[in-house]
C-alpha cells in the first residue's frame, strides 16, 4: 500500500498551489491529466522517491490548488509549473506528463527548454486529433449544466457513475475509479469552470485542437520516453507510435491490457520502465545554437 502523501502549499503569483514532495536527488515533476489531481500519482511516488525528488502538484483550478486566474491554457499551466519549481529552489527537472499533463509537458519543453532534463509522455494529449467522444461532447455549449447535475449525483452514486463510464470503454479497474472521482469533483463550480476552460482550450467537437507534431523535431537532443496503455479508451495508442517515429531516439513502452492510467493500473511496470529510462539516459543540456539551427532548417528547405 502507498504511504499517505504529505501535502504542502506554495504561493505562486498570490494563489495557493498544492503539491506533494517526496525523496531527494534529481527532480521528477509529475503532471496529472484533465480533471485529475496529484492523487493520480499516489501509487508511484514512494518508489520513485528512493532516488529522486518527486514533486506532484495539483494544477491551478484542480484539487487543492487555487484558480488559474481565468487562464487555463497549456502555456499558462506550463508557466505555473516552471514558477513552482523555481519557488521550491529547483532549476531543472525531468518532466512526466499524463494525458493533458503530457500536452503541458511538451509545452514546458518548448517554452522552457533550459529547465528540461528529460521528457516523459504518458497517454499524452496533443499528438493527434482522436479523443473519446465524451470529451468532445463536454466541449459543446451547455455542457456546464449537464456536468453540474451528473457530477453532483456522482458523489453519492459512484457505482452508477462507474457503470456509465464502463459504457464508454473504461473497464471496472483503476481507470474507472479515478475518472469517476475526478468527474465527481466537478460538482464544485470553481473546479468545473477550470475543467471546462482547460478542456475547451485543447478539445473541440471535432477532436483535439492542439497538435505538437510539427514541433517534435525540436526534441532531438532531449531523452524522451513514451508510455501508453494498449487498451486506452480515451486517446488511442497509435498516437504513441506516431510520436515515437517522429522523435528518433525516443523510447516507446506499450503496456498490454492497460487503459488510460498505466501509473495506477500497472504501477510496478510503470516505475520499472521509468527508472530504467532515468538510469540509462543523461540529462539534456540546452544548446541555443543547436535550437537555432533546427528552427532555421525548415525555412531554408522551403
TrEMBL record:
Alphabetized GO MF terms: hydrolase activity
Keyword presence, Hydrolase: yes
Keyword Cytoplasm carried by entry: no
Keywords tagged on the record: Hydrolase
Pfam families membership: Abhydrolase_1
Top-rank taxon, per record: Bacteria
Domain AB hydrolase-1 per the UniProt entry, residue ranges: 26-267
The protein, known as: Alpha/beta fold hydrolase
Origin species: Svornostia abyssi
Amino acid at each position: 500500500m502507498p504511504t499517505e502523501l504529505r501535502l504542502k502549499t506554495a504561493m505562486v503569483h498570490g494563489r495557493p498551489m498544492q503539491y506533494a514532495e517526496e525523496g531527494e536527488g534529481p527532480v521528477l515533476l509529475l503532471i496529472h491529466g484533465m480533471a485529475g489531481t496529484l492523487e493520480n500519482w499516489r501509487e508511484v511516488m514512494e518508489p520513485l522517491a528512493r532516488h529522486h525528488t518527486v514533486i506532484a502538484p495539483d494544477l491551478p483550478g484542480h484539487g487543492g490548488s487555487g484558480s488559474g486566474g481565468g487562464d487555463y491554457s497549456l502555456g499558462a499551466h506550463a508557466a505555473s509549473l516552471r514558477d513552482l519549481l523555481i519557488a521550491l529552489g529547483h532549476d531543472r527537472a525531468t518532466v512526466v506528463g499524463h494525458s493533458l499533463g503530457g500536452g503541458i509537458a511538451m509545452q514546458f519543453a518548448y517554452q522552457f527548454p533550459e529547465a528540461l532534463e528529460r521528457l516523459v509522455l504518458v497517454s499524452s494529449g496533443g499528438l493527434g486529433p482522436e479523443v473519446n467522444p465524451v470529451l468532445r461532447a463536454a466541449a459543446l455549449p451547455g455542457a456546464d449544466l449537464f456536468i453540474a447535475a451528473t457530477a453532483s449525483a456522482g458523489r453519492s452514486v459512484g457505482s452508477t457513475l462507474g457503470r456509465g463510464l464502463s459504457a464508454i470503454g473504461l473497464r471496472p479497474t483503476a481507470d474507472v475509479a479515478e475518472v469517476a472521482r475526478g468527474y465527481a469533483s466537478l460538482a464544485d463550480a470553481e473546479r468545473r469552470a477550470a475543467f471546462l476552460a482547460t478542456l475547451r482550450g485543447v478539445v473541440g467537437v471535432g477532436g483535439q485542437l492542439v497538435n505538437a507534431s510539427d514541433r517534435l523535431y525540436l526534441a532531438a537532443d532531449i531523452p524522451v520516453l513514451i508510455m501508453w496503455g494498449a487498451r486506452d479508451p480515451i486517446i488511442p495508442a497509435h498516437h504513441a507510435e506516431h510520436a515515437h517515429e517522429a522523435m528518433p531516439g525516443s523510447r516507446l513502452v506499450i503496456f498490454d491490457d492497460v487503459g488510460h492510467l498505466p501509473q495506477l493500473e500497472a504501477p510496478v511496470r510503470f516505475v520499472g520502465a521509468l527508472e530504467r529510462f532515468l538510469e540509462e539516459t543523461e540529462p539534456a543540456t540546452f544548446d541555443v545554437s543547436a535550437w537555432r539551427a533546427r528552427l532555421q532548417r525548415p525555412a531554408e528547405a522551403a
